[in-house]
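Ticket #4471: structure export looks truncated?
Reporter: QA, pipeline team
Priority: medium

Steps to reproduce: submit the single chain below to the structure queue and open the exported record.
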Amino acid sequence: MITLYAVTWRADATTLYDSGLDLLADGDLAMVVGSAPATTTREDALSFGRTVEQIASAVDVLPFRYGTTVADADEARVLLREHGSAWVARLQKVEGCAELAIRAVPPAADEKRAQSGAEHLGKLVSRSRLLNAAEGELGDLLTGRCRVVRRLAGHEELKLSCLVERASAEPVRSVLQEWASTRDDLVVSVTGPWAPYSFAADGQDAGVAL
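Actual output as written to the record:
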């Protein structure tokens, strides 16, 4: 059993030969793989994430979800052949980019239990309006600074994933943090740059979809 970490360009994969991982190539692509751990602990998941980020710091990648495994190298090569054209198109979309993640949620002090159904509905409407307005502000702020901005599913909070040029990641993060400092009605966090998990698959799946 082997673990799948990421798909990258075959021409770039040679820079990873000293990573301690294996490379399987087919056509224009290469798959980064390694031995599957015997356990599935939190530390295993963290280690997987760190490894993907190390790879992404060196080359463009489509990262796999944690826990994606195949029986052997032959099966991995079959995946490369079957999904090659789709993965080439996705790699082209994320080329030179990383992901910044934005999370905004009303302060916990605003989460007092509603005393009636009408009050509960009113809170939901107010929250939705607040988050939608924040999304609009962020959309204006990020126009021209990000290649793609995607809202992830969820009604209780605003979660945005931003595909940004690697060279622009820190300046964009600074702009976002400055905006966050002006919002006393939202608790905002900005994390990354990460490997482009939210842009590696169709729709809003995180990680390469098989």
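Status: closed, not a bug. The export was complete when the record was re-opened. Leaving a note from the reviewer for reference: The first helix runs from residue 42 to 56.
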